[in-house]
Write a structure and sequence with these properties.
With 458 residues, this protein is an alpha/beta fold. 41% of the residues lie in helices and 16% in strands. It has two domains: 242 residues, Rossmann fold; 115 residues, Rossmann fold (3-Layer(aba) Sandwich). It has a seven-stranded mixed β-sheet with strand order 1-4-5-15-10-11-14, sandwiched between helices. A four-stranded parallel β-sheet has the order 8-7-6-9, with helices on both faces. A two-stranded antiparallel ribbon has the order 2-3. It starts with a strand and ends in an 11-residue tail after the last helix. Bound molecules: pyridoxal-5'-phosphate.
Amino acid sequence: MEVKKILLTEDEMPRQWYNIAADMPTPLQPPLHPGTGQPIGPEDLAPIFPMNLIEQEVSTERWIDIPEPVLEVLSIWRPAPLVRAYALEKALDTPAKIYYKNESYSPPGSHKPNTAVAQAYFNKIAGTKRITTETGAGQWGSALSFAGAMFGIEIVVWMVKISYQQKPYRRLMMNTWGATCYASPSTQTEAGRKILEKDPDTPGSLGIAISEAVEAAVSDENSKYALGSVLNHVMTHQTIIGLEAQKQFEKVGDYPDIVIGCAGGGSNFAGLSFPFARDKIFGKDIKIIAVEPTSCPTMTRGPFAYDFGDTVQMTPLLPMHTLGHDFIPAPIHAGGLRYHGMAPMVSQLILDGIIEPRAVHQLETFEAGVTFARTEGIIAAPETNHAIAAVIQEAKKAKEEGKEKVILFNMSGHGLVDMAAYDAYFSGKLHDYELPEEEIERALRAIEPLPKPKVAAK
Ligand SMILES: Cc1ncc(COP(=O)(O)O)c(C=O)c1O
């Protein structure tokens, strides 16, 4: 029998995270203060994050030690297997070899706890009593709730209203791990009340939920806020995925030609791809593809600009690809990909030609997810299906070209709590959304008054 799962032992788990800030061809531009437009220092972030995480956020050290208590919790499901998708290859009749990192083994079912556990730990040792956060699909909220339970910290989550309604089981998972979860916009915060007044039927957005969670954190001295994606330290915590994958490829004497991940704020994509992006920066020939929905085409159609991370303009201005902080995407079922911005690290690496963005339509992603479920057996999250759709595109291209490409993708989460989305797909209720050009123009208007990063808009 051929080897299907390439496994590592706990002893072989990486002991350090990789910080790509040390190797980026163009250094990151600084975040700016939302009021003054000037670069912010660590002290400006102190009301929101504990100093140990702020240090990681601004660090340019290449390697950052993973503390032992974090490794202990991660070992509940890590190292995660690297799996060869023989059955998918066969169904596609492709000469390509397809591998995936299976991040769905974590208790909440996705890659998100890789950083949730780290953030809960660093907050714990900094004395934080309560962490507030937002969640889109519910994966991040449940991941942080799980991590809070592991380290004895109270967690409060604002969940985008449309997902709160579509995914009651995610909320119940959060409750089971001891967290509180509100539908956002909520009446709990000033930001939420203002938005509800203007539009009581809004489906909500990650931008709004972030505003609520940040407001709740800064108005209580024992609380801090945690973000599940976008920020540098989150990308760094996720690199354990790609670092494990590199060790696993070494074991079987293989190496990917193409690395693929879906990207909402960029964290699972960065986690898998940054260690490979490092090899690319130092000369390796690898194609690295970040996949997003056509309905929220941040990377493929959004300009690179300074923009707020949230709707109510409370967060620092970040240099990133953006559709504008007031953008409310169509209510597609991949809730975790409905975000107006993109990680500054991912955005800069796109500008530098290290990463290639790609947008796929919703129906193609579900078709891909169903193919994956009927071959490899795993029902992937709707977000993950975006990566699978791009994998299938690349595998078909390899067939046309008669090339034995090695494709690696991130199976960022399972879809077992997302079956309502599959139901909507099977009953023909899902549609493709192409964002009209007027929306892009509107996005440009929303960011027009803000300071400009050094690189011209695309
Ligand atoms: C399973 C899964 N994959 C991907 C994402 C997108 O987030 P990110 O781009 O930070 O990986 C999410 C977000 O909720 C998710 O739940």
